[in-house]
Structures are given as C-alpha cells and as structure tokens.
Design a protein that fits this description.
Elements lengths: L2 H27 L6 H31 E4 L2 E4 L7 H22 L3 H28 L5 H25 L1 H5 L3 H30 L4 H33 L3
Antiparallel strand pairs: 1-2
Length: 245
C-alpha cells in the first residue's frame, strides 16, 4: 500500500466515525420533534448510526494495528485487518434501515409486519452469504468468490424488487406532501446499495489496487445509505407530524 492509499483509508474511516457519531446524537435528540407514531423510526435511525459508529471505531483500530506510516513509508505490521467488523455491523444495520423506511411510511399493521419480516430475513441472508467471499476466502480464489457473490445477489435482488415494485402502491397512498420524499428515500437506498456488489467485485477485477478501493468504496456507501438516508427519514417524519398524518 502506498502513502496515498493509506491516507485515503485512514481519513475515510475517520470521516465515517465523525459522521455516525454526530448523526447518532442528532437523531436521538430529534425524537421529541416528531409525532409518537414516528418516534420508533427515528430511534432506529439513531440506533443504526450508533451501531455503525461502534464498528467503524473497531475498524479504525484494526486498520491502525495492521498498517503503520513511518517516515513516509507504509509498513505492514503482520496483524490482519478484520473484515468481519463490517459484516457484523451490516448484519444489524441493513435490516434496521429497511424497517426505518417501512415504519416512517406508517403502513397497516399487517403490511408492516409482512414486509418487515420478509425484508429482514432477506437482508440477514444477504449479509451472511456475502461474508465468506471476503472474510474467509483468499482473493486468489476467484471462482469461490464469484459463487458467494452470486448467492448474495439472490436475496439482494428480492430486496431491490420489493423496494422498486412492492412499495410502489404503498408510496402512492402516502400524504401528498411526502410522496416525493418517500420515493427519493427509497431510491437513495436502492442506488447507494447498488454500489456494494460492485465494490465486492473490485478484488476480482484488479487485486493490486483492491484493498484501498474496497475500504473507501464501502465507507462512502455506508455514509450515504446510513447517514443521508437517516436524514431523509427524519424529514419525512417531521413533515408528516406537522401535517398530522
């Protein structure tokens, strides 16, 4: 790893820690600004950011244990960067992000339960299937990595279908003043999540530059899909609360 790559990973992890830490405080403090029906959605936003904040602290610590910068040269210490921190974080945050959107839409109890269970199961399955390809398989084992990527894409495709098609009618039943916001929040999640399977492929495309690309790529995607998405959930909750919806 060159100095530029070291600094990119170091600074991106540091930026994510600051972002998720500040977002956690913001979302929890704003619970009092929304109606009771939307407090749970905002609580989940704060909880997701808190989980991400903790795991990024652990990743930052693991990165500093694995690499050190001395006199303009990046040295490998022999300690391995722990990829599992990302996946453990996603195992918790990905289902909660989907539940945030469902709860802020305030669907019927039956629809909320049905969609929540299905999407939560699909999200957990997606993360579990994706982990072995990055955490347990060597980068040189391209065939095996492709298998896990394809397996993880099955529940991922179901989630994308549910967000694009399944929630279409539900969005049309939302109050007029938030329909556009709900649709934009859904598309923000879809577009930001679309980066993850692409970043997953980086080591198969260019192994020599994959480490920096993967770490920075995942971090940027996390900031967008967790932090920015949470802000949109808050705005939707506030507007619906002001309208008494």
């Amino acid at each position: 790893m060159e100095v530029l790559g070291f600094n990119l990973v170091y600074n991106s992890l540091s930026f994510a820690i600051a972002t998720f830490g500040a977002s956690t405080v913001f979302f929890f403090s704003q619970r009092s600004q929304v109606a009771p029906a939307y407090k749970t959605a905002l609580t989940l936003s704060g909880l997701v950011c808190l989980i991400a904040f903790y795991h990024y602290l652990r990743m930052f610590e693991s990165f500093n244990d694995a690499f050190t910068l001395i006199y303009g040269e990046v040295l490998v210490t022999g300690s391995e960067f722990n990829v599992a921190y990302r996946y453990v974080g996603w195992l918790l945050t990905v289902p909660l992000l989907l539940l945030e959107l469902i709860l802020v839409m305030r669907l019927s109890k039956d629809e909320t339960f049905s969609r929540g269970i299905k999407l939560t199961f699909a999200a957990i399955l997606m993360v579990i299937l994706g982990y072995p390809g990055e955490g347990l398989v060597d980068v040189s084992q391209l065939g095996t990595r492709w298998v896990y990527w394809l397996l993880a894409m099955i529940p991922f495709s179901y989630i994308l279908y549910s967000l694009t098609v399944g929630l279409g009618n539900s969005i049309s039943r939302q109050p007029k003043n938030v329909q556009g916001l709900v649709s934009n929040a859904r598309w923000l999640l879809i577009i930001s999540w679309a980066f993850y399977p692409i970043v997953y492929l980086f080591p198969m495309i260019n192994p020599s530059a994959s480490y920096v690309n993967v770490q920075v790529g995942y971090t940027v995607a996390d900031v967008v899909s967790i932090g920015m998405f949470g802000v949109m959930i808050y705005i939707i909750a506030q507007r619906k609360s002001d309208a008494g919806a």
